[in-house]
Design brief:
With 193 residues, this protein is mainly alpha-helical. 62% of the residues lie in helices and 5% in strands. Strands 1-2 form a two-stranded antiparallel sheet. The relative contact order is 0.11.
């Protein structure tokens, strides 16, 4: 299991002797498949397709986040609450490291934030954190400022999307779950009448 999800990483891991390859954030169905393959070693590991990515225009993919948690709406709400409280500290650490030219601290903080954003299914902010981490780890000081500006913008957009008044409430519908605002839920209820 790794956070390395760039092109060629899977092949390098398998070539180094790994039995299988999973990237974070973990998708339960892929984890179960990997465990089943490991329990039956006579079957070769197939080439796994990468998990489908959300659109790069997506600030927060509530459907994917909820699906990853097995539809557990309460857990998703808790996860959002924890993310909102911890992300402020991570952003403060990122800003402090960037202003003090602490590229190791910056890379570590950006990596931690990136992981949380991936788990949350916030693809735009995830990519911005990934770019900042890369700039810090590659000592590309001229890229740190623009990457930090991009990350701050994406985190502002994400904060708006996660705000209780704006993110839409996760509502239960007959036959499944649906993410939407209370207004949308009322409209669906009227149409069913």
């Amino acid at each position: 299991m790794t956070a390395h999800a760039m092109s060629g990483d899977r092949e390098r891991c398998i070539a180094a002797g790994m039995d299988d390859y999973l990237t974070k954030p973990v998708h339960p169905s892929q984890l179960v498949d990997a465990v089943e393959r490991a329990a039956a070693p006579h079957r070769p590991a197939p080439d796994l397709p990468r998990h489908p990515q959300a659109s790069s225009a997506t600030v927060f993919d509530i459907d994917r986040a909820q699906a990853r948690l097995g539809g557990d709406r309460t857990l998703l709400r808790e996860m959002i609450t924890i993310f909102r409280s911890e992300s402020a500290g991570l952003m403060a650490a990122i800003r402090e490291s960037a202003s003090g030219s602490d590229r190791e601290g910056l890379g570590r903080a950006a990596h931690t934030l990136k992981g949380a954003l991936g788990t949350l299914d916030a693809p735009r902010a995830f990519e911005a954190a990934r770019h900042l981490e890369h700039a810090a780890r590659q000592n590309q000081q001229s890229n740190v400022g623009p990457a930090l500006t991009d990350l701050e913008r994406e985190m502002t957009d994400l904060a708006r999307a996660l705000a209780p008044s704006r993110r839409g409430h996760i509502v239960k519908q007959k036959g499944g779950s649906h993410a939407g605002t209370r207004h949308e839920a009322r409209q669906r209820a009227r149409r069913r009448r």
